[in-house]
């Protein structure tokens, strides 16, 4: 189950949440983004639903477990993992791990990503063009949506997702 955390493997973070639980929740949110965002561009609505992970992250294992059990909008869920932007290919969502070097992040945002939702772990990615960023508030994982970027992506964000987020205009 996605939200179960093993206390044997849990490592406490400085913010008070164990890393296993943190990445279970982030994976659940990424899956939720796929459920509650509608892409207007036709090419984004066919074939596998692809979530890319740029950099090394514990989220990969969690996302692969979700992909093995679930689909998105009747489409198979595929997880792509890459150390560079060149290896990602087309994805509906790209998760940027916290340890990705700044030069690779710059390359990501310099690449034409007309309908790709970029979600990051570092707050400064909001100002660089991320559609959403995760943050920790006590023992809770939260996310902030960047309304202007989402509008530029020409996507429709369901009110359910908006109600769970902190939204920046």
Short description:
An eight-stranded mixed sheet has the order 3-4-2-5-6-7-8-10.
Q: What would the keywords be for this entry?
A:
169 residues; alpha/beta; Rossmann fold; two-stranded antiparallel ribbon; 6 helices; 32% helix; disordered N terminus
Spatial shape: globular
Subunit arrangement of the protein:
single chain
CATH class: Alpha Beta
In whole angstroms, the N-to-C terminal distance is 35 Å
Number of helices: 6
Predict the CATH topology: Rossmann fold
Instruction: Tell me the fraction of residues in β-strands, as a range.
Output: 25-35%
Helix proportion of residues, in percent? Answer: 25-40%
- Total number of domains: 1
State the total count of DSSP E strands.
Answer: 10
Enumerate the spans where pLDDT stays under 50 for 5 or more consecutive residues.
1-15
User: What structural category do the secondary elements indicate?
Assistant: alpha/beta
Largest sheet: 8 strands, mixed
Average pLDDT figure: 86
- What is the second-level CATH architecture? 3-Layer(aba) Sandwich
Topology as a string of helices (H) and strands (E): HEEHEEEHEHEEHEHE
Strand order of the largest sheet: 3-4-2-5-6-7-8-10
Overall radius of gyration: 15 Å
